[in-house]
Amino acid sequence: MLEELAIAAVTAGSAVTVYFMAAAKVVKQYERGVVLRLGRLRRQIREPGFTLIIPIVDSLRKVNMQIVTMPVPAQEGITRDNVTVCVDAVVYFKVVEADKAVVNVEDYRFAVSQMAQTSLRSIIGKSDLDDLLSNREKLNQGLELMIDSPAVGWGVQIDRVEIKDVSLPETMKRSMARQAEADRERRARVINADAELQASKKLAEAAHQMADEPAALQLRLLQTVVAVAAEKNSTLVLPFPVELLRFLERSTQQAAAQPEAAQPEAPHAVPPGLVPEEVLDQIRDQVGAAAADVDPPRSLTPVRDSADSLPAPDPGTTSRT
Asked: Is the whole model's pTM more than 0.90, yes or no?
């Protein structure tokens, strides 16, 4: 009798232990427990910690409440300006209502992933290429709203959506590179033209200043010669006075306009004071020496006189026909 009682007590104790182990559940801090009793949802959400359920009658579903980072596979599409691009993104979301995440949707992770891919393709078709490359903040907000609207009924909250990368065809990359190069070249030309305009204004002011002070022009001429000679060149460039060229041009025009009788004896003569007297004396001496070296012309004998001076031919020596 005692043995039967002991066996019954051990059996009951084992049954209680098994029942207690089946009824005892532990919900972690980042989880919430949803109880379904005979298939019906219990409104009371089990908080983190130790909890008991009725075995066989109740079933406990644990829902993770942490923020989930879900990458969206790259989606290929055509933008509004007919450019083929490949865009991938990442979605950050979390469950805020555990009962809706269990009851209203079969797999909320898969549902959010598919909704993110569909919304991303829709955003690509509604946007221009420039918006995808430069205005991503606005596109991220629009994409977040498109995913968050159906996710509210699933008990899921979309925290953030980010477009990670936009892949372009190689031809489009080369075209964009040429466009950027042309734009930089245009700006360089505008800056160069602006510099030329400023330099021309300063040069005009310098020209007016040198016109008032002729000595400044001579000093500038000497500075230019020094600058050229400092480069150790074999050729030295000396500028020719423009005033002298203008004087010679005027003299030539006056000589052509006046009749020959009214022309002066030396129309090409340089006015006194323009060239030093020492230089003129050297030029005259060189011209006289060159004239002395030339031989005087020989006297030519008329052809008729030369023919008369020849002896008359002998009649006997004339050839017969």
From this structure: no
